Structure formats: C-alpha cells, structure tokens
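Hi all, posting the design record for the shared folder.

TITLE: backbone redesign
STEP: 1 of 1
STRUCTURE INPUT:
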C-alpha cells in the first residue's frame, strides 16, 4: 500500500466550531447512555468493550469504501499499544465518573485535563511554566475543592477519584498522541486505540459479561455509535479550524450534561457546582489562551490539542 498524499486544507472556522459543538452533543449523549446502561446492570468492562469494539468495523468499512485503508499502515504498533493502554484506563475512569456521579459533576471534573497537562509539562518535561499557567492550575483545583465540598455534603470519594483520574490520564495520553501524530494520521490513532482497547476489555468479559435484553443491547449499540461519531466530528473540527478556536467549544458539554441530568434523573446542580464549575472552566480558558499566545514556541502543553480533544470523549 502506498502512503496517502498530503493535501493542504484551508481553515473553515465556522464549520469547525459547528462540528465541535456537534461532537460535544454526541459525547454528552454517550455518557448519558452509559449512565442508563449502568443502571440497567451493564458492567464497566462491558461498557468499555462495546464503546471500543463498535468503532473498529465502522472505521474499517469507511476506509475500505473510500479506498484509504493505507492510512492504517504503521511502523509504530508498540506506541499505539502503549497509548491504548493508557487511553483505556482513562476511558474506564471517564465511564466510572459518569456512572458514580451526576453527569454535570463528572463532566466538570473532566475539564481538569489542562491543569494536569501543565503540571506534567513542568515536573516531568522540565519546561518552564510561567505565572499565568501556574495561577490557572491553582485556580482550577480550588474549583475542584469547591465541588468536592470537604466538610459538607461531599462528592462520593470513588467518583471524585475517577473524575480526577480521567483528567490526569487524558493529560498523559495527550503527550503520547502528540508524539504519535508526528508520523501517524489521526484516523490511525483512533482506529488502533479502539482495536487494542477492545482487546484489553475483552479479557474481562468472561468475568463480568452477563446476558442482556433488547433494551440493554440497544443502549450498548447506541453508546458505540455515539462515541465513534463524536471522534469523527472532533477529528474533522481539528482539520478545519485552529485548536485554540475549537477547543473552547468543549465547555458546552456541561450544558448538555446538566440538561440530561435534570430531565432524566432530576439532578439539579448544587450551589457548590454552580460556583466550582465556572472556576474550573475559567482556569482551562486561561491555559488555552496562554497556549495560543505562546503558539510560536513549540510547547509540549500544546498537546492539549488533538489529544485532549479526542480523549475527552472517550472520551475520553
């Protein structure tokens, strides 16, 4: 198979924003379906497996139909496997947060990824981080404390750990994808993540898999379709618009999560949520704006781009 030719695309910011907004709707819908499936008795390993496995035939069929199977050719299989290992752990945390917490809370905790990305950049990659980004990190974790309400009516500890774990692992994965993206097309990253992730989750199916009725199977199929469509929309948005433009649209997921939580489960965000969520969002926006400002310098934290965007979805 010959390598695909590279075409130069012009930015189409309004279309990129529209695609990103649609992606957030699909992501929020996926997590809503995940929560319904969990309540119906579907285990976490099953949710992870079907979320990943559904993407494999869809991507293969689409690439075969368009004559682009060569996009999956790679010499970095071990890197894809390592990325899938981290990404699957992040997906488990994301799904765990969705099932253990009200949807708005789990979604908000997912916005901590930029905070962890800055910490990794400073402590692991030894890049200089200025006062703006450090201030944003402190501000963001103040927002987390507000939501957690220590000493009050706290968020369940396991759910809080899952939400923050998802933010941390997605930040780690963002650097892995940044490295992979130097040689691999985005669709290859998505496919091999889904392929290896489904294999990893399949190991646990004999232990946790159970018989399901029509309702549960419909939910599982819908979860896989929603997640796969969200990934395609995210990738398309990044190809048509600047990262700093489209990534800000991710925060609209909080609107849909709140709407789903209220209409389906009657979850009305607490006062702590109303106060803490804007603080975390503001921190993320500060980091994003600083990355855009420093864009002329090749900075590892700009890995908040394709990596974070794609993974939030697995999300995230």
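Okay, here is what came back for every position:
SEQUENCE:
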């Amino acid at each position: 198979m010959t390598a695909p030719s590279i075409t130069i695309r012009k930015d189409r910011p309004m279309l990129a924003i529209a695609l990103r907004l649609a992606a957030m709707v699909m992501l929020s819908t996926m997590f809503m379906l995940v929560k319904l499936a969990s309540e119906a008795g579907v285990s976490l390993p099953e949710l992870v497996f079907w979320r990943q496995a559904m993407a494999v035939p869809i991507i293969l069929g689409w690439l075969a139909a368009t004559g682009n199977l060569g996009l999956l050719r790679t010499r970095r299989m071990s890197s894809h496997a390592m990325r899938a290992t981290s990404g699957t752990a992040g997906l488990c945390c994301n799904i765990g947060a969705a099932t253990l917490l009200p949807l708005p809370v789990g979604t908000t905790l997912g916005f901590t990824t930029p905070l962890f990305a800055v910490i990794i950049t400073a402590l692991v990659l030894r890049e200089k981080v200025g006062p703006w980004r450090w201030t944003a990190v402190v501000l963001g974790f103040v927002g987390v404390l507000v939501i957690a309400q220590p000493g009050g009516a706290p968020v369940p500890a396991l759910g809080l750990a899952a939400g923050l774990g998802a933010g941390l692992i997605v930040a780690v994965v963002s650097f892995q994808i940044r490295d992979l993206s130097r040689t691999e097309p985005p669709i290859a990253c998505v496919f091999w993540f889904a392929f290896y992730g489904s294999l990893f989750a399949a190991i646990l199916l004999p232990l946790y898999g159970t018989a399901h009725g029509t309702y549960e199977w419909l939910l599982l199929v819908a979860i896989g379709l929603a997640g796969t469509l969200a990934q395609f929309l995210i990738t398309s948005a990044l190809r048509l618009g600047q990262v700093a433009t489209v990534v800000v649209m991710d925060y609209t997921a909080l609107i849909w999560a709140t709407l789903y939580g209220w209409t389906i489960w009657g979850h009305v965000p607490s006062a702590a949520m109303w106060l803490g969520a804007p603080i975390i969002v503001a921190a993320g926006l500060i980091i994003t704006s600083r990355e855009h400002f420093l864009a002329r310098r090749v900075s590892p934290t700009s890995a908040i781009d394709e990596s974070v965007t794609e993974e939030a979805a697995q999300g995230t």
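COMMENT: The chain has 15 helices and no strands.
Let me know if anyone wants the other runs.
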